[in-house]
Amino acid sequence: MTMKLRAAAAATAVFAAALIGGAATPSQPAAAAPAPATAPAAQSYLPGANHVFVINLENKGYDETWGPASAAPYLSQTLRSQGVLLNQYYGTAHNSQPNYVAQISGQGPNPQMQADCQTYTPFVGAGTASPGQAVGDGCVFPASVPTVAGQLKDAGKTWKGYMEDLGTPCRHPALGAVDDTQKARVGDQYAARHNPFVYFAGITGSPDCATNDVDLSALTTDLASAATTPNLSMITPNLCHDGHDSPCVDGQPGGLASADAWLKQWVPAITNSPAFKQDGVLVITFDESDGPQSDASACCGEGPGPNAALPGITGMGGGRVGALVLSPFTKGGTWSTTPYNHYSLLASIEDTFGLPYLGYAGTPGLNRFGLDVYNAGV
Predict the structure, then answer these.
(1) Does domain 4-22+30-362 have CATH number 3.90.226.10?
(2) Contacts with 355 (C-beta within 8 Å, 6 or more apart), sequence order
(3) Strands 159-163 and 133-137
(4) What region does 338 belong to: left with phi over 0, alpha with psi -120 to 50, or beta?
(5) What string of pLDDT tens digits covers the 378 residues of the chain?
(6) Does the keyword Metal-binding apply (predicted)?
(7) Are the CB atoms for 201 and 105 separated by under 8 Å?
(8) Residue 188: closest CA among 213, 215, 170
(9) Structure pTM?
(10) For residue 320, what is the DSSP state?
């Protein structure tokens, strides 16, 4: 399979640099808006992907999901045989909400985010810290804090968030209001805290939110052709189908069993689509491990941030969760032992589309997907 290099380097020289881990050391606040994004390294390797899909499931540690006793055999066996398993992939925080935010902005957690933003409060800041961290506390970042959604729009690319049970596009609590989606209800198991796009005023204050942050049901129509499939699709099942609740309010078993049934329905719809077959990458991962009391481990040099000395509440990260990558550019039944986390995922998405790195995605030496992932031609 033909591979291409980002202009400037040959593949053999690329990955020695791309697979070195490193740590970020936040500086003191210095400005009123986040620091400029870090430019992608010229050596980054790309397979030619142009459609990236990310599915986030909830609150399961690596062994529970990928071990021999997994309650998700479709994911851990059937899909596992079709892709590359990243067995050192980590969440970046506890609880859920900051992990989703990390994937689209590179912002680390603050106390209200670690509490899952029970109230939909505006972020109140006092400058920035390196790399590109807004310093302060709160849930809804000001328009000055960039996201990959804005990056893609500026680059002439497209994005959508597909949220199960969202119903009304761009649904979120009123600013300052208590979040009434924290618990599932029969017929409405949407959780705003699992929809990262609604935590950025640059998105919620734009018509793009109503157009691009939509109910999961819209995905079927969008997958009909490569032209109607966004370059980036962030997909979130509801509180039952993402494995969060067990049992679910509607009587379903929940946990990995319900997540596996959901994947059986939706993953083939993605992998059989024209966009995926042409140049797609599907990443299936979990926001965090079971919880801060069980696993707050980290990788990739993650350490204290300007707003949270312990991003994982009791440790430095969100625990080891693993991730599976399916693509025409990957080889089935393989694995990578390279350490990755949600910031790595953001950086890898930005590599794919030639975008600057945002926030902690710009951590020096952070691992980004390389030939260990895009291994079909290796």
Answers:
(1) no
(2) 37, 40, 148, 151, 152, 155, 349
(3) unpaired
(4) beta
(5) 333 333 333 333 333 333 333 333 233 222 333 433 443 433 345 779 999 999 999 999 999 999 999 999 999 999 999 999 999 999 999 999 999 999 999 999 999 999 999 999 999 998 999 999 999 999 999 999 999 999 999 999 999 999 999 999 999 999 999 999 999 999 999 999 999 999 999 999 999 999 999 999 999 999 999 999 999 999 999 999 999 999 999 999 999 999 999 999 999 999 999 999 999 999 999 999 986 667 999 999 999 999 999 999 999 999 999 999 999 999 999 999 999 999 999 999 999 999 999 999 999 999 999 999 999 988
(6) no
(7) no
(8) 215
(9) 0.89
(10) B
Give every CB contact of residue 208 below 8 A, 6+ residues apart in sequence: 149, 153
Residue carrying structure tokens 């290099």: 5
Please name the residues in contact with 278: beta carbons below 8 A apart, sequence gap of 6 or more.
Answer: 50, 51, 226, 328
Which residue from 93, 111, 109, 123 is spatially nearest to 26, judged by alpha carbons? Answer: 109
**CA 240 – CA 58 distance, rounded (Å):** 10
Going through 242-339 in order, the beta strands assigned E by DSSP cover 280-286, 323-326, 334-336
**For the chain, domain boundaries:** 4-22+30-362
Whether omega before 131 lies within 30 degrees of 0, making that bond cis, reads yes
Distance, in Å, from the CA atom of 51 to the CA atom of 229, rounded to the nearest integer, reads: 8
Residue partners of 374: CB distance under 8 A and separation at least 6:
3, 45, 47, 327, 329, 330
Instruction: Tell me how far CA of residue 53 lies from CA of 108, 229, 270, in angstroms.
Output: 22, 10, 8
Q: Are strands 4-5 and 45-46 parallel, antiparallel or unpaired?
A: antiparallel
Which residues are within 8 A (CB) of 97 and not within 5 positions of it... i.e. 6 or more apart?
113, 116, 117, 139, 193, 194, 196, 199
